[in-house]
Amino acid sequence: MSESQSKASVQGTGAFTYIKITDLLNSYNFIASSYSFWSRLMYGNSLLAIQLLLIKELPHKGHLLILGGGIGQILPSIYNQSPNLKITFLEASSKMIALAKKQIPTGQNITFIHSDSLESMKIECDYVYASFFLDLFSPSHIKAIVRTIENHQTHPVTWFIADFHLGPKVKYRLLRAFQVKLSILFFTITTNHHQNFLPEVFEFFTKNRYKSMIIINLKHSFLSAQVFKS
Ligand SMILES: C[S@@+](CC[C@H](N)C(=O)[O-])C[C@H]1O[C@@H](n2cnc3c(N)ncnc32)[C@H](O)[C@@H]1O
User: Fold this and answer.
1) Which atom of ligand 1 is nearest to the CA of 96?
2) Domains of the chain
3) Atom of ligand 1 nearest to the CA of 117
4) From CA 67, how far away is CA 163, in angstroms rounded?
5) 214: part of which helix (H) or strand (E)?
6) pLDDT of the residue at 120
7) pTM, rounded to two decimals
8) Cα–Cα distance between 160 and 13 in angstroms, integer?
9) 96 touches ligand 1 (CB under 6 Å)
10) 137-187 residue pLDDT tens
């Protein structure tokens, strides 16, 4: 399926970027309770491991916006690292949110938002955390998501990104590409996922002149976590 066939639409440019992503609300409900099982079956503990390394880089104060936070398995680790962070947890699946709420440590300052649309997200924050989230979208939608969030800020945000990376230097690249294809097939069958390729998430930031402040790689660079500043 081509980018233009994706069920999301991006309208406008620059300061007036507007993003409407349809049909994602609750589309992950079906797999919410088994998400962790499937993730470990496919990748072992490595998707969590790369996030735990990224979380160590989080600052101690400020407002963190988590995009598509899933079952919230990272919330206790975020609290251990930065108990004073204010967190907004944006998630499209009500069942994922219900599971995430069970993970909150006592004292964590967190607000949940159940939504799949970013156009109404006028959230002022200092940092954005997105793990295995931006890869759901086409390059133009990644751009719109980043621009939409940034347009609501009065100061630059720092981006904490963890995702798959299929760059030319990745070891066992064919095997990794096959794993990614299988994952995409899985999400196509079980959720309302419409994109059949892995976008170059990290390249989006580097090509748009963000500075990569920290780079953490796992699995011979197949999994990467980076902190970007504009
Ligand atoms: C592949 S899962 C990743 C979950 C989690 N970040 C992790 O690393 O385990 C993607 C998550 O993004 C959520 N999601 C998808 N589209 C979304 C949207 N437009 N707005 C908010 N959440 C969305 C899904 O419901 C799902 O929980």
Assistant:
1) 27
2) 3-229 (3.40.50.150)
3) 19
4) 13
5) strand 211-218
6) 67
7) 0.92
8) 24
9) yes
10) 999 999 999 999 999 899 999 999 999 999 988 999 999 999 999 999 999
